[in-house]
């Protein structure tokens, strides 16, 4: 308001007294409506100069412009320049007030202006970006008392400012909104945000603790863009080469996760609950505001027919080698039985010789056995989080990998695989590994006693 007053003042001083003299007729509403007014037929006629806008402002300033009065403007001389003057002043006012509408974080027009308790206003986005790093107002350094997830319900936008902005500069506002949208779009084809932290599995819940500022921003953008999806990749600390990508800091196959729930902590950290949608391979990657983004390609399994053909081929090949080795055994001289003591180690499954159904059955049997033994990794809390064991062999490996207490890198092969049979084999190999490790622990603690 101060800026507006100053501008009108300056304008009045530069306007010639003869410019656009207007006869302003102000009528009381009641008399117009034909109802006799207590103030009689009140018509005030005044001659003001400077155009309609400046004279209206002058009347308001004098306190003589009633809210419900009807005002008529008549130029005192024909060919008055009042319209030109009005446009000139309006343009001027827009220019000067616009500068006051700039956010001090992004230096753009306020987009969804949010006024903090300290009285400063920023774009909603900008407040979020500030909160990612600290909880202090960037202008006055007072502590910002906004909740970390400042959604529109918890802290609504400044209504007056929003109206002013939309009224004063609708085109610039539309452009500003467009720019913000383009920001989400990121780097063109690198349109998938990537969270390099762990493995995720299709159809299985993954819980993530988001505390790094760059990932807070990434998750918020994923939610605000409406997609609610992002890719999760396993870190590659030893920089093992990843196909065409080379020695990148992540493994190239990952899982697309869909955010289903999130909880913000007071300090800005958040816990998000996601569910795996599909697997993908990273084709290209880049960085956007500190986090990775990529162009991804969906990874799907081979068809059921191909799956069956694969199993049949493996089984028949196995049969042939068995027949051959039986022949060898028959011809060969009797040989020593291995003296190595393997009794302590549980026998590993020969996964290649097992049918897909048997592989699945072995996995299910292992889970049932461990549950019976009340293994910690199958506690009720774990089952509450990941759900009960799926009865579908397609879904089983994902669930199994999620609950199995083994290092993520050992489970990575599952993500790359394009066959259910292949994944069931990996699961059986993994369960053998768990059994061996448990045996070693038991032996170790047995020695201590
Ligand atoms: Zn801003
Ligand atoms: Zn402040």
Automatic annotation (TrEMBL):
<dbReference type="InterPro" id="IPR015947">
    <property type="entry name" value="PUA-like_sf"/>
</dbReference>
<keyword id="KW-0479">Metal-binding</keyword>
<dbReference type="InterPro" id="IPR017907">
    <property type="entry name" value="Znf_RING_CS"/>
</dbReference>
<dbReference type="GO" id="GO:0008270">
    <property type="term" value="F:zinc ion binding"/>
</dbReference>
<keyword id="KW-0863">Zinc-finger</keyword>
<dbReference type="InterPro" id="IPR013083">
    <property type="entry name" value="Znf_RING/FYVE/PHD"/>
</dbReference>
<dbReference type="InterPro" id="IPR001841">
    <property type="entry name" value="Znf_RING"/>
</dbReference>
<protein>
    <submittedName>
        <fullName>LON peptidase N-terminal domain and RING finger protein</fullName>
    </submittedName>
</protein>
<feature type="domain" description="Lon N-terminal">
    <location>
        <begin position="181"/>
        <end position="435"/>
    </location>
</feature>
<dbReference type="InterPro" id="IPR003111">
    <property type="entry name" value="Lon_prtase_N"/>
</dbReference>
<dbReference type="InterPro" id="IPR046336">
    <property type="entry name" value="Lon_prtase_N_sf"/>
</dbReference>
<dbReference type="Pfam" id="PF13923">
    <property type="entry name" value="zf-C3HC4_2"/>
</dbReference>
<feature type="region of interest" description="Disordered">
    <location>
        <begin position="329"/>
        <end position="349"/>
    </location>
</feature>
<keyword id="KW-0862">Zinc</keyword>
<feature type="domain" description="RING-type">
    <location>
        <begin position="103"/>
        <end position="141"/>
    </location>
</feature>
<dbReference type="GO" id="GO:0061630">
    <property type="term" value="F:ubiquitin protein ligase activity"/>
</dbReference>
<dbReference type="Pfam" id="PF02190">
    <property type="entry name" value="LON_substr_bdg"/>
</dbReference>
